[in-house]
Amino acid sequence: MGSCCSSPWTEAIPQKQNNQQHRQQQSHRQSFSLQQVTPPGAMVGAAGEIPAFSEYSLAELKVATNGFSSENIVSESGEKAPNFVYKGRLQNRRRIAVKKFTKMAWPDPKQFAEEAWGVGKLRHKRLANLIGYCSDGDERLLVAEYMPNDTLAKHLFHWENQTIEWAMRLRVAYYIAEALEYCGSEGRPLYHDLNAYRVLFDEVGDPRLSCFGLMKNSRDGKSYSTNLAYTPPEYLRNGRVTPESVIFSFGTVLLDLLSGKHIPPTHALDMIRGKNILLLMDSHLEGNFSTEEATSLVDLASQCLQYEPRDRPNTKTLVATLAPLQTKTDVPSYVMMGISKHEEAPLTPQHPLSPMGEACSRMDLTAIHQILVMTHYRDDEGTNELSFQEWTQQMRDMLDARKRGDFAFRDKDFKTAIDCYTQFIDVGTMVSPTVYARRSLCHLMCDQPDAALRDAMQAQCVYPDWPTAFYMQAVALSKLNMHTDAADMLNEAAGLEKKRQNGGKGT
């Protein structure tokens, strides 16, 4: 059996360690590798449950982004963007977007952390939410939910398959207005440089407002990186962003939705005043829109683009105006966008499956339970080398806790089993992959897939090449609706079993 964890999911853990070291490393491991497993009370969005806001290490984000590889850059503004955004994947397999600020953009780490925590408190289904930050030396990074279906700019200006239909454009306007209204109600009314690149589409095609615009690009830097023709007139005068400035920028997004082009506001207003609304409309819509709805949207855009900030509507008015325009409310966004919905990937490994693998692929928790009961602890052989001096009363109490857990596990009293196995684990004198695997199943039986995934990962740390640890991770990931990752785990487990069989080692 291996002595450390070789998977990218977890940190290497020395096998031989005293009790205090074991407990400290176990605690560190969970905060480092598993801190993003969803806490109680987190909001549920299209991508699943949103983790609590937390701090990441630079090393962790380097691993997640493959060393900030240029291949992982997803920001579309190119040289115009003062900072790059990378896609990445955390050790718990969650996909993330990482915004990397230029050197010394935020010289004061405390000020950066305070700003990030302020934005990190926001949680809404219309936001691509901020889930963490990193402040390490001169490095300043933000970590957000990853949105896999590109930006509004891409779908409006650079589309390949189909343009966005009218009803979906109205939905985009409404959802982003809802996001702005929520941010304002939570004391974060300032959004920096709102434009079509800041609107992202999640895995089910719903539009979300990027959380990155809720923070400036630097402590003292400019709040707008787009062409000056699209910036609010008062920003050109005094360089300050106000809630009314955000409304002006929202008006430019409405122009984008109407025209399918990036039209300077002054030019668009001239067209509107000249009653040339049809000339303003996107020709790719081929007339498939309601003139009445288009007129309402044009009127709203005109109000948002008023020269005097006081003449612009507030976010409540935006939402109230756009809500009645919503049509096709029963049609999912991914259908209107022509996006392939993320389907549940069948757990179909490349290697033949053992009975354990078959049970996991079927998500048959009862069959998994029977197999773990029958296997007992024979896979734990060699994971612990205990001296005579360690056979103390504490050791006997610990083994008694495990025995009570085993009885409860056999009798399907899973809550009691969790309590007993936890007593065994917390002492820290022995490490047992089987106990982690059993407690993982108990958590699944109690509908606690996050905790089940944690335990399956800990089992792998203790025994890096143990197929059961990977199988249990596959089941937990599937329960968390991370089906592609579950399929990968199942296939890896089957491959490990085949490797063991070829090596003549039994299960």
Automatic annotation (TrEMBL):
Q: Where is the composition biased (Low complexity)?
A: 15-36
**Location(s) in or outside the cell:** Cell membrane
Which keywords describe this protein according to UniProt?
Answer: ATP-binding, Cell membrane, Kinase, Lipoprotein, Membrane, Myristate, Nucleotide-binding, Serine/threonine-protein kinase, Transferase
Please report the stretch or stretches of sequence annotated as the Protein kinase domain: 71-326
Q: Name one GO molecular function term.
A: protein serine kinase activity
Which Pfam families does its entry note? Answer: PK_Tyr_Ser-Thr, TPR_BSK1_C
User: What does the record give as EC number?
Assistant: 2.7.11.1
Primary localisation category? membrane
The lineage's top-level taxon is Eukaryota
Name the catalysed reactions.
L-threonyl-[protein] + ATP = O-phospho-L-threonyl-[protein] + ADP + H(+); L-seryl-[protein] + ATP = O-phospho-L-seryl-[protein] + ADP + H(+)
**Quick one: where's region Disordered?**
1-36
Q: How does it sit in the membrane?
A: Lipid-anchor
Q: Under the cellular component aspect of Gene Ontology, which terms does the record hold?
A: plasma membrane
- Claim: Translocase is one of the keywords in the record: no
Biological process, per Gene Ontology: brassinosteroid mediated signaling pathway
- PANTHER family assigned: SERINE/THREONINE-PROTEIN KINASE BSK5, SERINE_THREONINE-PROTEIN KINASE BSK1
Q: What is this protein called?
A: non-specific serine/threonine protein kinase
Q: Per the UniProt entry, what species is this protein from, by scientific name?
A: Apostasia shenzhenica
